[in-house]
Design a protein that fits this description.
26 helices; about 75% helix; Serine Threonine Protein Phosphatase 5, Tetratricopeptide repeat; two-stranded antiparallel sheet; about 550 residues; 3 domains; mainly alpha; 2 strands
Length: about 550
Amino acid sequence: MHQEGITADRSIARGFAYEGYENLREGNYERAREAFDLARTFDPQLSQAQFGYAWSLLKSGRGVFPFIDEYLHGIKLAWVHFSADEIIVSNFVIVTTLGIFCSLTAISLLVVLRCQGRFRHDLFELLRRPLGKRTAQLVAWVVFLLPLLVWAGGIWLLLFWLMLGFRYMRVPEKVVAAMVFLMVGLSPLGVRLVLDRFQASSDPETRIVVQAMQEGYNPETIRQLRQVVTRHPEDPELHLLLGTLYAKGDLQNEAYATFQRVLELQPTNVRAIVNIGNVYFRLGEYAEAVTRYKEAQQLQPKTLAALWNLYLSQTELLHFSEAESSLAAARDLDGERVGALLAQKKDGGSGLPVQELAALDQIKHELRGDRISAISLAMSLANPFSIASGAGLLFALILGVGRKGENSESCRRCGRAFCGRCESSGVGYCPRCMHLTLKREQITADNRVDEMTRLRRRNRFRSVGRRIASLVLPGSGLILADRAARGIPVMVGWILLGLHLLARDRLLLPERVPVLDMPEPLLVLGLTVMVVLWITGNFARTAPGQPLGDAHGA
């Protein structure tokens, strides 16, 4: 394959990785290591081959530290593959946004469930004198259920309830509610941006460019990239990418002509000048290569590739003092990178010059063009959802402004709502619990026993409801018990991880070699964190004296 100029091929690399995992499973660790090494040769970006190589080192007794070093390198490769694939990134953003919105919606509904009694109580007290007790109670329920009565459910119901309950929420809960208002309001804009990103990332030309950046020389990739360059003849980055592929395939004449075309479009393109110097270096014309590298240095002094390649060329010309000066300058720019290059050269590396690569972001921008203008983005917010969300948030903030003590509280013992207009001493207990616990002389023993029995039954029902909710959705019980600071992170983390694990095989499409007996590390980590969150959400205790329903205070 190398004799034919094919320096990278993902299908061949996956085949060797498959063989490596087979040998790893059978206990042939040295053969597995050799297979993984071949896979990395044909595709240095294949993270699964790197992971397998790390495991083969560990299994063959090479030590823990080499395993960790190689495994971390595999994680870096996996991240590069993930971040370079716009479809996967777009899907990840969609899943994350959906998870955040679902978790915030669930939290908001739980908070509304906890606070709705206080809202109805305040409205009842406001209307009791002019309308009477029974009518005021009915009106309070009608106002609370108004969206359902007019067949306006879904998002409209959520926004309406958040607006009514905003003033009764704790600070973390108000932050959640405000985020729900903003996410609903900005959702049309987000959908438009995601669709544009998806259309751009699924464009065949973009896919070819990304494939060319990830792979080495491959005749089929070259053919497809030439067609893209033909359709965009004035884009210097595409020509630069095509030239680097020619150089990887040792087609120096084609590479030289392509880099010259870049200089015709941009006479001061430093990367093209460096790569032309690399062509001369590969042809053995080191003096001409030195001239090109120095020209690049004059245009852009802080160019690591030019300094390193200059060091290699001057070494070949036996100009050792000048070579040492170039190496020292390169070390001043990036000592870590130069150290890695020297180590590679010392270990029998090729000693070939470093190529300057094309800028992928610039190519994507050129291929994508200006699809969406700022005016069109602003116009996308002129819709009922955005207007209603903005108005709802503004109204919620207005309703939330008030003096401390104006809002009703929840009884610390039974959870019922009461306010300053009720017959209570203001110590956090509703009038009924005041008579049961503090003013026992005002109630008969039989009535007190009956009331205490009903109170215990009510609290037991709420406790069971919270436990069931936490079993299904960890963190629910904490939120219902007014422990939002702990319940919100638990619920958000649980839903986010759950959605990502469910979507990873459908939307996130992790790169795999189809023979791996051991579970994938990210899957194990995600499940472990979900178990920890479930335990936290189900076994956390509420503070002594806390009600099983609504919390006290606004």
